[in-house]
Amino acid sequence: MPHQPLITVIGSLNMDLVTYASRIPSPGETLLAQSFALSPGGKGANQAVACSRLSRKKPDPASDHQEDSSHAQSAGRDDGRGEVHVKMVGAVGDDEFGASLTTGLRRDGIDVSAVETRQNVSTGVACVLVETDTGQNRILVSSNANDTLKPDQFKELSDPLPDLIILQLEIPLETVLQVLQTARHAGINVLLNPAPAALLPDDAYKAITHLIVNETEAATLAGVSAEMLSSEEALLDVAETFLDRGVRYVVITLGHRGAFYASREKENFRHGMVKAEQVSVVDTTAAGDTFVGAYAVRYVQASAETFDIHQAMRWANIAAARTVQRSGAQSAIPWRNELTA
Q1: How far are the Cα atoms of 177, 230, 250, 307 from residue 272, in angstroms, in the given order?
Q2: 256 pLDDT band (50/70/90 cuts)?
């Protein structure tokens, strides 16, 4: 039986409270919104959903297999349709939002056996304001149960060890740093998407195989202004800063400009740009998380010798472009068979 790669996502689970308006109100101004929705989210959960959906076909709702697969998923097992097994590690509150989030992840074939339910604390929430004229968003996050993930929980990793760990910064920074240290000692590859941006100790970069950042995050971590990243030469300078700190693959996403990459594998140095897909933007909320998930799936499906970062980013751009054409976070993330490479 061929090896099924395992991706473990350690991160946040939030319920998104999304308001859609034609524009963002000015200070002191009240506007009537166009619509409101509750949407499962959290960068950790979004990336887990992206990994799962982009490694399998969309289930047929009429299939008789659905009931059986739901039972398998509730037990924390992959339903067999996916090329990648995805495990979510996180925490929710003992409330309606928490139950809804874990149910949704199971439905997408994700192992939620390591998502803990905390008593006397609320599930994380994010207030999302989407400007419908541009598709751009503003997000405020209240971490709640996500803040209960502590470093002591990650001094060891349970078997089976994953092929890739995905991290973000919506859980406590000291917990992320502990995971990085543990993964490094265990020889496990890590993909870090440092959002929201926060400064990291230089030693942390030695544990990061893949660093995926947007312009703002790249500038913050590198200690430069985002305005400086207007040219490919400037992007290369910043990327080399991270490579020099120990990262092997650096990806800087640039919105409508596409994405820039630089990698250093042994003596092989490579860099370049991947153009963005040209589409009509509805909502950018989960675009970055979709990109991360698509990229991660392509990485674990390849060997160290066959991984092609340019092709992985091209696939990730296609997936993210599909996401921004829909409203919502997880609801907008496509399945593998909805994309054409």
Answers
A1: 29, 14, 11, 15
A2: confident
